[in-house]
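Appendix B. One record, verbatim.
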Amino acid sequence: MPDISQRPAARPRTGTAAFAAVAAIFVLFTAASSAPSPLYVVYQEAWGFSAATLTVVFAVYVIGMLAALLVVGALSDHVGRRPVVAGAIALEAVSLGLFLAADHVSVLLLARLLQGIATGAAMTTLGAALVDLDPPHAPGRAAQLSSVIPLTGLAVGALGTGALVEYAPAPTRLVYGLLLAGMVLSAAVLLFLPETSARRPGALRSLAPRLGVPHAVRPDLYTLLPILIASWALAGLYLSLGPSVAAGLLGLRSHLIGGLVVTLLCGTGAAAALLLRGRSTVRLLDASAALLAFGTAVSLTGIETDAVSLAAAGTVVAGVGFGGAGLACFGTLARLAAPAERGELFAVVFVIAYLAFSLPAVVAGFAATSAGLHPTALAYGLTVAALGVLALAAQRLRARQTARQATCPQAAV
């Protein structure tokens, strides 16, 4: 992956229009990635596949995204940002065409795989382009948006799809037609955007995946693992089985509500990441771990007592923890790692995050098929809450170790 924390040495003079256009394309890609979530229930009813198959459809997207992040993450540093974004737009358009034509789960699987590859290539390249175009009058805005845009897009895509499925015609077609039109418009806008990264040799070598964790950063990364896994596993549950839980356990059959379930978590997370920027990462990690655990427990209580408002309130609380956790984790690692180390380190963190995002959801899908949705959701939620408590304990232990090392250097690990 490219190190998006550093700008090119020579940045073209551009206005805010190019920056806004890149941000808009970024939102479109992430919105498209969550658009199928409210439709999973529709596909399931129409084609009669199990919850296990549903989560496999969800997981192949993550496989494609991880492959793209690891293989083409650094490509735009060598061939330029525009060619890579153009390729991602083209591949996304193909995937949306497959969604439009889908009449079987196998087509759905292929569409999600291609969409994952396109989104992975777009995310890393558009993130780098945002930093290239960081407005001189608002330095640091690109870094803020890079953490907020993915969650915002997930929220907008899920809610928009839910509304279209509930109130508009052609529930499994219209949203993809609109997204395809958005991709065509993005391709046209791309023609007028400046290239912000000069071509340089090494494009083929950049395709070799590189993962690395600097020795000095490893203790902090190990400490962050529980909250990384808890937050992203919770997001995976909401995006894969969230609408099914709303319909099957809480009796909320509206597809708009199915989209709102995802939006409550991701939209709250995006708002939290935006509002909490600049806060102490240590305090933010503690608070986020506690909110994840508490919010998940409250949501489970709402499910167990059929209290929809309680489940929604718990989701909002957990969403604040989700957004704060991402902001604090990446802020901590960016501060500790040297600039030349951040690209590979962030690649490792993305791999961990997206594996936590997908693998537990797949396991939950198979469990829901064999044991039922209710016990699966309960066990999943309790695991996330336990990881939140473990994350809080890990942060406290690490803080004591750091304080002890500061006063007694020979005790350093």
